[in-house]
Design goal:
6 helices; S-adenosyl-L-methionine; globular; UbiE/COQ5_MeTrFase_CS; Methyltransf_11; S-adenosylmethionine-dependent methyltransferase activity; 196 residues
Length: 196
């Protein structure tokens, strides 16, 4: 991550149940399709809003966030036993090749993927994040991406200029070696299931 991070001083907003209107617990679990022995990463876990939903269905849930302060907030509210904290950029994950059985990001793809109008160095870092995900996900593993759409109204979430549309996001994933299983454009968000 690193191009844009969620302000820690607004972390309480990450616990708002209204977030489910953009991606429900059931939708996320259906797209991810985890098993109880899976090792799964929540990319940009923040305060653990969605990690709490996925952790009961997996062996290990890696809460990955670049901000240690977000991990501290998550610890304060209490964490499921399956959760392990990883403070790292998505472009530099501390996992062996093929370590993960799945990964997901909810409203954070725009934080670690290559910026639309960024510099060449930013684009390389974004490309590196997706290549890193391809490295740490085992063959056949699912990567679920739900993020704000560049075609949305911009009333919620980050500015439109920081977002990707469905075609851009799927092209980024395909360029990193992922196969797109499903991709949908919704009123404010995009949802993509890709496999390694």
């Amino acid at each position: 991550m690193g191009y844009h991070t969620y302000p820690v001083e607004r972390a309480d907003a990450l616990e708002d149940p209204g977030r489910y209107r953009y991606c429900s617990r059931e939708e996320l679990l259906t797209m991810l399709d985890p098993t109880d022995d899976d090792r799964v990463a929540d990319l940009g876990s923040g305060t653990g809003f969605y990690a709490d939903d996925v952790a009961p269905f997996v062996d290990t849930l890696y809460a990955v966030d670049v901000q240690q302060a977000m991990h501290d907030r998550y610890r304060e509210k209490g964490t499921p036993d399956a959760v392990e904290f990883i403070t790292a950029e998505v472009s530099s994950l501390p996992f062996d090749d093929d370590h993960l059985d799945g990964a997901y990001s909810t409203m954070t793809h725009h934080e670690y993927a290559a910026p639309v109008n960024g510099t060449d160095a930013d684009a390389d870092a974004g490309d590196g994040a997706l290549a890193e995900l391809a490295r740490v996900l085992r063959p056949g593993a699912r990567l679920v991406t739900v993020d704000w759409s560049a075609d949305g109204s911009g009333e919620s979430g980050p500015p439109l200029a920081e977002r990707y549309d469905l075609d851009e996001a799927t092209a980024q994933l395909e360029a990193a070696g992922f196969e797109i299983e499903t991709a949908s454009d919704r009123p404010e968000t995009i949802a993509i299931v890709a496999t390694r």
